[in-house]
Design goal:
The chain is of the alpha+beta class. The protein has helices at 3-10, 25-28, 107-115, 132-145, 153-173, 175-193, 200-206, 211-222, 226-243, 248-254, 260-271, 275-281, and strands at 15-20, 29-37, 44-47, 52-59, 62-65, 71-74, 78-82, 88-92, 98-105, 125-127. It folds into 2 domains: 3-173, Jelly Rolls (Sandwich); 177-281, Orthogonal Bundle (Arc Repressor Mutant, subunit A). It is elongated and about 75 Å long.
Length: 282
């Protein structure tokens, strides 16, 4: 059984352990576990944590929104860094599939690790992938913390540093895989919003990348610029609607064109024939 399947089976329900070293919870908190989320009440909306938390998404999807309103898609393999004092939201798609592994680190310990460059404070969402070693570290951290021989801070810090270091290392190595995953999510956004007249710039904003970076990555992976891909998807949708017997004016309206003339002009440019001729031919 692979580690992902093992963890999903073992942690079918939320299981977590928390402890505090000393009397100051913000600086002394340690904790870890595996969380299942299936209700909106479990979302973190405009949250400000007083300590550091690292969250690896194992199953499910959602969005991370930073204090400036920038939204980043979340999916398995994303590693969220909840930075102390920084307002953010994590919104989970409530399909009953969300599973995360998490760890907590007191503010003082976080600041020490950030000072030596172990934690990237300017990057709240890393892409680690569902790396077997990373998942094993999370499982071992949980098992160690509930063990009666657990020596608290020393054992905990050793394992936590391994997880955080590995998460950043994997993020750096997975830049190519991350780019592919980003484009896959861009395509899903286009499919989902094709009737909403979504723009390439809006997609780049939702994915938290600059438009120029997004445009270059998209063209490299898909062979066409994102705006051209969107147009093609709109025309593909229009073809389906034509075959369903919908009127040209109705299709133009549903797909966000200003009028049927503008729709027919773009349809012919992409498909090589008019919408009427396409319907006749098919």
């Amino acid at each position: 059984m692979d580690i992902v399947t093992y963890i999903k089976a073992r942690f079918s329900e939320t299981t977590a352990i928390y402890d505090t070293i000393g009397n100051d919870r913000d600086n002394g908190i340690i904790g870890c576990g595996f969380l299942r989320k299936n209700s909106w009440q479990q979302n973190n909306i405009d949250s400000v944590f007083s300590y550091y938390s690292g969250v690896l998404i194992i199953e499910g999807s959602g969005r991370y929104i930073d204090e400036d309103g920038t939204s980043v898609a979340l999916y398995p393999g994303c590693f969220i860094q909840r930075i102390p004092g920084r307002k953010h939201s994590t919104l989970v798609n409530m399909d009953g599939k969300w599973l995360e592994a998490f760890l907590c680190l007191g503010k003082g310990l976080y600041e020490a690790l950030a000072q030596i460059g172990l934690i990237k404070q300017d990057k709240p969402v890393l892409y680690t992938g569902l790396d077997s070693l990373l998942l094993e570290h999370f499982a071992k951290l949980f098992d160690e913390q509930k063990s009666p021989t657990f020596s608290r801070i020393n054992d905990y810090l050793i394992r936590v540093q391994k997880i955080i270091f590995l998460a950043h290392e994997l993020d750096a190595k997975n830049s190519g895989e991350k780019a592919l995953s980003l484009i896959e999510h861009a395509c899903k956004l286009i499919e989902h919003h094709v009737r909403d007249n979504i723009t390439a710039k809006e997609i780049a904003r939702r994915l938290n990348v600059s438009y120029e970076t997004f445009r270059k990555l998209f063209k490299a992976k898909k062979g066409v610029p994102p705006h051209e891909y969107i147009v093609r998807k709109r025309i593909d949708t229009a073809k389906t609607m034509l075959l369903q017997g919908k009127a040209i004016g109705e299709i133009a309206l549903e797909l966000g064109y200003c009028d049927s003339f503008a729709f027919s002009k773009q349809f012919k440019k992409v498909a090589g024939i008019s919408p009427s001729q396409f319907r006749i031919n098919n």
